[in-house]
């Protein structure tokens, strides 16, 4: 919370570096700024170190199997009943009243006070992989990598409306203003990325559902220091806000300005000795480097054609597939937590058409990400998670759609120490309630942290007199799905 | 809520948990003895300095001669024991509690945890030293351990009789005697200095001398009005020999209308003031008049007790004024939703908890919110307290879900009269129309029959029609409705037909028909732009129940009535009278309430020193931090109440103290001993708040529009930043008039997507009460200051000033620029770097006129026509350097 402690770490790192390694210099490198600066002054005042956060979890609580996370958020709430959770019984019961025993005492969203009728799966399922795992036939590409995937068919959550449900999935609480999981992970482990933020967010739209809003609080650092907040890489305009130099200012001229600022700040620091200044210098260097590295990251034009074929996108087309490709590039560059939001999964009506659109948008791309990571030998230490903020009701809404549903739904995970080719947990025969090996959101968080080498009970932050955790007071590691 | 320690094996503080790997290794290396130092100075940097052997000798700090429960023992018990042996009876292990002396001394199953004066007989002593897994305390699974020093403190405390003290914050503050200070070497200007310097003497520290005029004037300007001083103001203080010149400068600032703006910033954070509802669609609501109310209140120096009462219960005051009602908008600042499928009971519960958390933070400095699901683990707040507090707000008229109402008109009486007149006009016009309605309806029937008979297409829908889209739509609706059999038409169809007929198809009674439209239009034209504000309106109270484990679906809990926190002093009320928000507000500012004054002056202290006397601003409960200088905090709290809750008096006291006026630089020794400046042997330096970073740049540039108050404004924001907002989709429209250059606190506060430069500099989203902003130092700040058009435009405007007002030659101009921005002359190295940059970029832009033109056209401010483009562009980059300097955005 307080910057003073951040300084202290920075200062401590500096002191240590000086004590043990002697002075290091890391200026703006290749830039031709020599003419601007008195070399003597530069030498005298240089020595700012990269302000890289190493994380509070060191050494790891457990041997980590995952180094990074790519979380594919299917925003809006995908129907598990048309994707990953086949329910023949529900098909049989189509159009018949949902037994009251199934729904009694359960939270209901838009169907409040309405007649609850069973709504059979609208799409066909097919067996894939060595274990003959049944998933919707519109997801053949994911079917082709199903042996890498662990389907969790017994997810539950606590919030039934989009905004609070996203908050719960991201922060483990429905109170706004708490840190999101990417922030927690960055805080705990730091980042391996040199010139990029440790927690990056990408968003994409699709068609066929309701384009539900996503608030920036979903990737906010809450009470953790701001440096841990997710940085939204945008498809249009500046990929990072204010990334581009002003009109009429070339990269070299911008470099001159930054170096002048840093030179003066260094000299000031000689006089007043304020660790804030050293941090400021490092941040200006980081910002300037980001001005180069982010466009390089975003420019996928250099990727070979077969890669675009694999994902099914064109360079920079802003699609979910293009974002999956960017996610892989971010992972390669050491970014710790990469979260994609793909929207329009909110199928209150037309769930059949909706899922058909969605499958076309995400099946190939999600599978491509797994294949691509695998062929680069990165799947073994990259945890990929796929799922929405909740599932959909087995009851119909308006005759063609499904309402929000929290008592049971499916997510999947792959890589990073997850056991592949398995199905974990189950819902009842209607697909209503998770009844076997129930996995709460806190459990999922605990498991993710465990894969990253963190005991979820020991990643804490003191705020308002209490040690807060991502998993609040709950969370059990789902050991059955660990490889 | 299990609480765990980290891997260091010592009690960890906020700062400590961020210690680097090297640091932790160092900590492990020096072992347990270092923990005492850790505990005392809370400084990893210091520890490290020590650990790598650069001069500080390690000495175990001796235990205090007399152990004091609140200072020495309570923090240990609270952090390690209360969770399982504390207030919450549901989670009390073995029936043992340590939060009360009776509990600690009680005999349970023949075991006495603490026997005063007899260590050997005290089970607690043995358990703390046990290595048996089944016996040892704290248990292994808690993840907590005590340091040797902490154990020694507990032992000594038991030996000395195990006396308890009431928690410091619950003891009614009394005015402590002002200590006498001798030979501190620095002046004692008022009691603040006496308290501070007396403590410094105890710690073997010395106060610092007064800062120079430049630093001091700049500091006090940022702190009191949030704007940089004019160079003349600095010179005036530097050159005036009169002893009260500084006091005079302070008086002037306190009288400035910008004082209220500056004071409003932290207040708006803590009350979570924002222009939008927060959840989901995050649509707009009308609350900005409340911001004006806050600014006015500080400017007029409204008594803080009155300020409190108006915000919680302004609407309940006898013959309440419009002003007081606007104050009561405080109760409406919570989050709300318009999301489809949201359930009223769910949000009714959220709103209750939201309000209770806010009151807890703003006035009581307590995390009452923890008691939503269970009795508080650390403080004596029960679940009943929580819901009974919520019940105070059950009378506030408010939809649980859906769009907020327009709110109360906030206008002078003359405008209200004018509105009433216009409303009357509509009534009158409608009356006129009613008199001719039978004839109109008859004509309409005839027309309908004709249309159906001839299957006529309405004129607007004919192929060659040149009607406006809105008219076509109206016609289409009417045509569709006309196609239906009359018996099949619903109300909308009937309206569509009638509206169409009356507006387009008939020439009858034009005067009467148009009269209504005109009257309505006139009224709307007058009404729509009028200021409105959501305010508190008392209604039939909702039923409030204790929700078991906070679950809103569980209606089995007991119904509760409004009641005050049971563990604080209670006023006497007539039997059976139902308490109201007014009772709550008056209790908050009652002389007996030990919390409110302390909590407020502690936050005030933070504004002027960067850190509170008790560091945890939002929690003065047992998990907070006992104040560093308890006597000073109490003196300030009592002085505040005795002065008649006079905020300006307190501010003046603080900023005229010597403590405030000290230099902010420190010797290495002082930095090492007190890195966070808790002892106040110097001033602190910290980055300006987000709003002030903006205000400062615009002010230096000469662009700032100093208008006070009014609706929120929209400075530049990157296009597409709201792409993920929906219902409806929106695009931010930059203000194109003078509102582009208003102060930061007027920026449109969109909770889910706050203006990104504000976010970069840690402005909070204001979804929850924020008592203390994060103060980070991140690359986004560099990107914003370098590239946000706000700052580039400011730089080019500043550049134009430099050329026109700064003198003739380059060095002279640079010196002038430094004076404007920092109130001082440039150092030789600064002059050299800036001159070199100017020379290089002058050549650059002379060779690239197009680039120069582009740069100097940034933003909407008028162009500077009479300066050479390449020269202005080069100066713009010099100005960018100055605006980006650490010193420029730092108050020191």
Q: What does it look like?
A:
- The complex is a heterodimer of chains A (about 475) and B (about 900).
- Chain A is of the alpha/beta class and about 475 residues long.
- Chain A is built from 13 helices and 17 strands.
- Chain A has helices at about 5-20, 40-45, 90, 100-105, 140-145, 160-170, 180-190, 250-270, 275-300, 305-310, 320-330, 350-375, 440-450, and strands at about 70-75, 125-130, 135, 150-155, 200-205, 230-235, 335-340, 380-385, 390, 405, 410-415, 420-425, 425, 435, 440, 460-465, 465-470.
- In chain A, strands 1, 4, 5, 6, 7, 8, 11, 12 and 15 form a nine-stranded mixed beta sheet that branches. Chain A has a two-stranded antiparallel ribbon with strand order 2-3.
- The longest helix of chain B has about 40 residues, at about 415-455.
- Mean pLDDT of chain B is about 90; it is low at about 1-60.
- At the A-B interface, helix 1, helix 6, helix 8, helix 9 and strand 16 of A face helix 1, helix 3, strand 5, helix 29 and helix 30 of B.
Please summarize what this structure is.
The complex is a heterodimer of chains A (483) and B (892). With 483 residues, chain A is α/β, with parallel strands linked by helices.
Give the topology, please:
The complex is a heterodimer of chains A (483) and B (892).
Chain A: H1 3-21, H2 39-45, E1 68-74, H3 88-92, H4 100-103, E2 125-128, E3 133-136, H5 140-144, E4 149-156, H6 162-171, H7 181-189, E5 199-204, E6 231-233, H8 251-272, H9 275-298, H10 305-311, H11 320-332, E7 337-342, H12 351-375, E8 382-387, E9 391-392, E10 404-405, E11 409-414, E12 422-424, E13 426-427, E14 434-436, E15 439-440, H13 441-451, E16 460-463, E17 466-469
Chain B: H1 21-30, H2 32-41, H3 44-51, H4 69-80, H5 101-105, E1 107-108, E2 111-112, H6 123-129, H7 148-159, H8 191-202, H9 213-224, H10 231-239, H11 245-255, H12 257-270, H13 288-299, H14 304-313, H15 322-327, H16 344-364, H17 383-391, E3 408-409, H18 413-454, H19 469-483, H20 491-505, H21 510-527, E4 532-533, H22 581-588, H23 596-609, H24 630-642, H25 647-656, H26 658-661, H27 668-673, E5 686-687, H28 690-701, H29 756-760, H30 779-787, H31 789-805, H32 810-822, H33 828-846, H34 849-856, H35 869-884, E6 890-891
Antiparallel strand pairs in B: 1-2, 3-4, 5-6
């Amino acid at each position: 919370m307080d910057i003073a402690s951040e300084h202290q770490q920075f200062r401590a790192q500096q002191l240590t570096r000086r004590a043990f390694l002697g002075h290091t210099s890391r200026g703006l490198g290749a830039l031709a700024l020599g003419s601007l600066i008195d070399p003597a002054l530069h030498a005298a005042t240089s020595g700012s170190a990269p302000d890289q956060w190493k994380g509070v979890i060191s050494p790891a609580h457990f041997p980590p199997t995952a180094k990074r996370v790519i979380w594919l958020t299917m925003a809006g709430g995908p129907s598990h009943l048309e994707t990953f959770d086949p329910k023949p019984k529900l098909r049989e019961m189509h159009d018949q009243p949902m037994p009251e025993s199934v729904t009694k005492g359960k939270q209901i969203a838009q169907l409040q006070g309405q007649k609850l009728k069973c709504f059979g799966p609208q799409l066909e399922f097919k067996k894939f992989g060595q274990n003959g795992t049944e998933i919707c036939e519109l997801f053949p590409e994911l079917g082709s990598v199903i042996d890498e995937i662990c389907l969790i068919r017994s997810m539950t959550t606590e919030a039934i409306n989009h905004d609070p449900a996203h908050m719960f999935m991201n922060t483990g609480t429905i109170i706004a203003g708490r840190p999101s999981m990417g922030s927690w992970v960055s805080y705990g482990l730091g980042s391996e990325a040199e010139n990029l933020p440790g927690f990056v967010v990408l968003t994409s739209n699709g068609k066929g559902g309701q384009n539900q809003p996503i608030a920036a609080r979903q990737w906010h650092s809450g009470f953790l220091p701001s440096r841990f907040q997710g940085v939204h890489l945008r498809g249009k305009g500046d990929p990072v806000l204010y990334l581009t130099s002003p009109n009429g200012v070339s990269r070299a001229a911008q470099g001159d300005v930054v170096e002048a600022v840093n030179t003066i700040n260094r000299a000031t620091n000689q006089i007043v000795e304020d660790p804030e200044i050293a941090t400021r210098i490092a941040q200006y260097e980081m910002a300037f480097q980001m001005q180069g590295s982010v466009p390089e990251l975003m420019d996928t034009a250099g990727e070979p054609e077969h890669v675009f074929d694999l994902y099914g996108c064109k360079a920079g087309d802003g699609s979910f597939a293009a974002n999956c490709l960017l996610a892989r590039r971010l992972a390669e560059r050491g970014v710790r937590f990469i979260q994609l939001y793909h929207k329009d999964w909110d199928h209150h009506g037309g769930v059949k058409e909706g899922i058909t659109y969605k499958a076309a948008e995400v099946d190939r791309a999600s599978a491509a990400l797994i294949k691509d990571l695998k062929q680069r030998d990165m799947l073994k230490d990259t945890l990929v998670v796929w799922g929405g903020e909740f599932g959909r009701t087995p009851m119909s809404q308006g005759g063609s759609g499904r309402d929000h549903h929290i008592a049971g739904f499916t997510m999947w995970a792959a890589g990073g120490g997850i056991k592949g080719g398995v199905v974990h947990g189950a819902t009842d025969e209607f697909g209503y309630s998770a009844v076997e090996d129930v996995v709460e959101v806190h459990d999922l968080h605990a498991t993710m942290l465990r894969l990253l080498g963190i005991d979820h009970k020991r990643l804490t932050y003191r705020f308002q007199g209490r040690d807060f955790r991502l998993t609040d007071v709950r969370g059990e590691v789902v050991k059955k799905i660990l490889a | 809520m299990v609480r765990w320690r980290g891997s260091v094996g010592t009690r960890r503080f906020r700062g400590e948990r961020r210690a680097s790997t090297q640091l932790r290794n160092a900590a492990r290396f020096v072992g347990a003895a270092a923990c005492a130092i850790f505990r005392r100075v809370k400084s990893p940097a210091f520890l490290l300095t020590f650990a790598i052997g650069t001069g500080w000798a390690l000495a175990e700090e001796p235990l205090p001669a007399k152990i004091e429960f609140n200072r020495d023992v309570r923090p240990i018990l609270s952090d390690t024991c209360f969770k399982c042996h504390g207030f919450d009876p549901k989670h009390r292990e073995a029936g043992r509690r340590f939060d009360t002396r009776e509990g600690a001394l009680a005999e349970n199953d023949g075991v006495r945890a603490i026997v005063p004066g007899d260590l050997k007989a005290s089970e607690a002593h043995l358990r703390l030293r046990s290595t048996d897994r089944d016996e040892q305390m704290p248990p292994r699974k808690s993840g907590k351990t005590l340091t040797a020093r902490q154990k020694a403190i507990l032992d000594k405390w038991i030996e000395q009789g195990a006396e308890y003290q009431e928690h410091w914050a619950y003891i009614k503050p009394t005015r402590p005697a002002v200590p006498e200070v001798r030979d501190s070497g620095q002046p004692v200007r008022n009691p603040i200095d006496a308290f501070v310097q007396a403590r410094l003497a105890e710690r073997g520290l010395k106060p610092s001398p007064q800062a120079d005029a430049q630093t001091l004037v700049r500091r006090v300007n940022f702190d009191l009005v949030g704007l940089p001083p004019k160079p003349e103001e600095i010179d005036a203080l530097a050159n005036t020999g009169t002893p009260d010149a500084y006091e005079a400068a302070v008086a002037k600032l306190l009288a400035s209308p910008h004082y209220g703006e500056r004071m409003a910033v932290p207040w708006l954070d803590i009350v979570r003031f924002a222009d939008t509802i927060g959840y989901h669609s995050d649509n707009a609501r009308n609350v900005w008049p409340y911001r004006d109310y806050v600014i006015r209140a500080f400017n007029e120096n409204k008594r803080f007790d009155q300020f409190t009462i108006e915000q919680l219960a302004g609407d309940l005051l006898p013959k309440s004024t419009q002003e007081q009602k606007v104050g009561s908008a405080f109760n409406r600042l919570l989050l709300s939703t318009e999301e489809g499928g949201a359930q009223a009971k769910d949000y009714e519960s959220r709103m209750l908890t939201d309000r209770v958390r806010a009151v807890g933070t703003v006035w009581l400095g307590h995390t009452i919110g923890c008691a939503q699901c269970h009795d508080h683990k650390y403080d004596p707040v029960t679940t009943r307290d929580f819901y009974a507090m919520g019940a105070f707000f059950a009378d506030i008229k408010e939809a649980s879900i859906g769009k907020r109402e327009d709110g109360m008109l906030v206008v002078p009486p003359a405008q209200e009269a004018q509105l009433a007149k216009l409303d009357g006009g509509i009534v009158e016009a409608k009356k006129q129309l009613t008199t001719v309605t039978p004839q109109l309806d008859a004509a309409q029937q005839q027309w309908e029959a004709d249309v159906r008979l001839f299957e006529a297409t309405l004129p607007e829908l004919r192929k060659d029609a040149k009607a406006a889209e809105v008219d076509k739509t109206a016609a289409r609706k009417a045509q569709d409705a006309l196609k239906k059999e009359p018996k099949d038409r619903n109300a909308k169809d009937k309206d569509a037909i009638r509206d169409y007929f009356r507006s387009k198809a008939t020439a009858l009674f034009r005067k009467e028909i148009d009269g209504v439209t005109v009257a309505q239009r006139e009224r709307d034209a007058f009404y729509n732009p009028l200021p409105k504000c959501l305010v508190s309106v008392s209604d039939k109270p909702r039923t409030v129940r204790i929700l078991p484990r906070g679950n809103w679906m569980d209606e089995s809990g007991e119904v509760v009535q409004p009641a005050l926190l049971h563990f604080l002093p209670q006023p006497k009320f007539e039997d059976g009278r139902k308490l109201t928000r007014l009772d709550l507000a008056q209790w908050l500012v009652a002389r007996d309430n030990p919390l409110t004054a302390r909590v407020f002056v502690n936050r005030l202290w933070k504004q002027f020193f960067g850190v509170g006397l008790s560091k945890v601003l939002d929690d003065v409960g047992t998990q907070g931090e006992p104040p560093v200088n308890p006597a000073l905090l109490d003196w300030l709290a009592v002085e505040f109440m005795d002065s008649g809750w006079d905020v300006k008096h307190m501010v003046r006291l603080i900023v005229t103290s010597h403590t405030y006026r000290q230099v902010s630089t420190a010797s290495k020794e002082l930095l090492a001993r007190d890195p966070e400046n808790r002892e106040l042997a110097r001033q602190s330096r910290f980055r300006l708040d987000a709003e002030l970073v903006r205000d400062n740049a615009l002010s230096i540039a000469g662009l700032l529009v100093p208008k006070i108050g009014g609706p929120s404004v929209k400075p530049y924001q990157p296009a597409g930043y709201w792409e993920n907002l929906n219902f409806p989709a929106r695009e931010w429209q930059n203000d194109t008039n003078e509102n582009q250059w208003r102060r930061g606190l007027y920026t449109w506060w969109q909770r889910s997507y706050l203006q990104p430069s504000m976010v970069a500099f840690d402005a909070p989203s204001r979804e929850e009460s924020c008592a203390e902003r994060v103060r980070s130092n991140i690359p986004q700040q560099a990107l914003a200051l370098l590239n946000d058009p706000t700052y580039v435009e400011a730089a080019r405007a500043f550049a134009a000033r430099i050329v026109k007002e700064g003198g003739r030659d380059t060095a002279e101009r640079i010196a002038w620029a430094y004076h404007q921005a920092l109130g001082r002359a440039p150092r030789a190295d600064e002059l050299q770097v800036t001159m070199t940059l100017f020379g290089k970029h002058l050549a650059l832009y002379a060779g690239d006129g197009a680039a120069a033109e582009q740069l100097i056209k940034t933003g909407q401010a008028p162009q500077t026509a009479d300066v050479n483009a390449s020269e202005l562009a080069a100066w713009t980059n010099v100005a960018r350097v100055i605006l980006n300097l650490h010193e420029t955005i730092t108050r020191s």
